[in-house]
TrEMBL record:
Claim: Transmembrane is one of the keywords in the record: yes
Coiled coil: none
Keywords: Membrane, Transmembrane, Transmembrane helix
High-level lineage: Eukaryota, Metazoa, Ecdysozoa, Arthropoda, Hexapoda
Key word Ubl conjugation present: no
UniProt-recorded name of the protein: Gustatory receptor
Length: 458
């Protein structure tokens, strides 16, 4: 329907946009080391520069590599002026060893929790659900994500090889690095809050602190003679598992946040270029260039979603049990350090959804832009037809396996689910039998009290 004549080249329009010569690319340096620390001739548009969007992922993978969360990171290659991927066999071995030991501990805890009586603790299923997603699921998630290195590298390559044509923001690369590093440092700070949280509940006693984790390990393994062989070792395993779980939870969310910030940054660059076609002092960008920019951004978004689908799904769906059951602890009477930790989680979880939805909404402005005669009249007919088809049938945004795309509509649905779960939990908590209820024996009362204390710390 959209073809009026035979086109000489069999390549699709989108493929033409991102077609480039890799050999020529390596012969021409897009960046220089001095660009990282400032310095660019503002009068020379062909001068090399640092891509601002790349820094969101680059800084994150530096932090996650040295905390044994991902087996790869990216470093600057002076010979090509591009980032290259670095791996370490020792780091991969340590990652698998740590994950294996902690996974055994996680599964044993889930088993112990599932053996409890749901009648005496009605919110048990909610507790098991969010604990499972925060632990065992995230272990599998990060191990699977470690195999996505080439997909991530493909996004890096596209961002660096097409930035001079479609991506002009270079002045704030240093600012982006500072923002990314601050967010990652905040995630590491949640580990300190977890330690302080336990100390406070144990009256700031080292003996009580270690005693709590040794008892927790003995409770999880359920084999007192075994844990008595080396109680300190099992205590270290318990606290390591707890801190690793917090690191999983925080950094999986932050990776989604970094992806959203990166994509939002590129959408803003596209939106600015679109606005420049209608500049008061004369158009500085041709509408046909905006169409090319759109096709490139659509393709890079698809590749970002392809590389991050697991993380995006964990952030959007996997976190719902947690925020449905625990988010209101921020306003409760829980440990102050727990409340600070939850406040930090909320400080980037909700804004990430809002930023992704806002970027999607800004991206949709292209529909109104192309309807203006001064724009569509300056676009070749065959490109205009392809473009109209694209914007009519495809929604561009952060998504997970194409199942859900973050828009304002989906954000509203997510918040509605969280509110519904939270109300259900509050109703279930209101029917917990009183401590003196005759239906509960002394052993059951002690068990519920011990479980409640543990769940507050976790």
């Amino acid at each position: 329907m959209f073809r009026e004549r035979k086109i000489s080249s069999p390549k699709r329009f989108e493929e033409k946009v991102v077609d480039f010569d890799i050999k020529k690319l390596h012969g021409e340096r897009l960046f220089s080391v001095s660009d990282t620390f400032g310095g660019r001739d503002e009068d020379d548009d062909s001068a090399s520069f640092e891509n601002e969007a790349v820094q969101y992922w680059k800084i994150f993978f530096d932090f996650s590599f040295y905390t044994l969360l991902t087996p790869f990171r990216f470093s600057w290659d002076k010979t090509t002026g591009l980032y290259k991927m670095k791996r370490s066999a020792l780091q991969i071995f340590l990652q698998w060893a740590l994950y294996s030991c902690c996974t055994v501990y996680f599964l044993l805890r889930v088993q112990k929790m599932s053996e409890m009586d749901p009648i005496e603790n009605p919110s048990l299923y909610f507790q098991v659900a969010y604990y499972f997603f925060d632990t065992t699921f995230l272990v599998a998630l990060f191990l699977s994500f470690g195999r996505q290195a080439q997909k991530v590298m493909g996004v890096f390559r596209d961002l660096q090889t097409n930035n001079q044509k479609f991506y002009r923001d270079y002045r704030n690369a240093a600012k982006t690095r500072r923002i990314s590093a601050t967010i990652c440092m905040g995630c590491l700070g949640t580990l300190v809050l977890q330690i302080l949280e336990t100390f406070k509940d144990q009256d700031w006693s080292w003996t009580g602190f270690w005693g709590y984790w040794m008892d927790d390990a003995a409770w999880a393994f359920g084999a007192k003679p075994l844990t008595d062989i080396c109680p300190i070792c099992f205590g270290v395993l318990a606290i390591t598992g707890s801190l690793l779980e917090k690191l999983f939870n925080a950094f999986s969310d932050v990776l989604f946040t970094m992806t959203v910030l990166m994509w939002s940054n590129m959408v803003n660059s596209f939106y600015d270029a679109m606005q420049q076609t209608e500049a008061a002092g004369g158009a500085t960008v041709e509408p046909v260039d905006v169409l090319d920019h759109y096709a490139w951004l659509k393709l890079i978004t698809k590749r970002m979603n392809f590389a991050m689908s697991l993380i995006n799904g964990a952030f959007i769906a996997g976190n719902l049990p947690f925020y449905a059951t625990n988010v209101f602890e921020v306003f409760g009477d829980a440990n102050i350090f727990m409340r600070l930790r939850y406040m930090f989680y909320c400080s980037y979880w909700y804004p990430s959804l809002f930023i992704a939805a806002a970027a999607n909404a800004k991206f949709e402005h292209v529909k109104a832009w192309i309807c203006k005669e001064e724009n569509y009249s300056r676009v070749p007919d065959h490109k205009l037809r392809v473009f109209l088809h694209e914007i009519s049938y495809h929604t561009v945004g952060i998504s997970s396996f194409g199942i859900i795309t973050v828009t304002w509509h989906s954000v509203g649905s997510i918040i509605s689910i969280i509110m519904t779960y939270a109300l259900m939990k509050s109703q279930l908590n209101s029917v917990v039998p009183a401590e003196g209820d005759s239906t509960m024996n002394d052993t059951s009362i002690i068990l519920v009290q011990n479980y409640t204390a543990r769940s507050l710390l976790w």
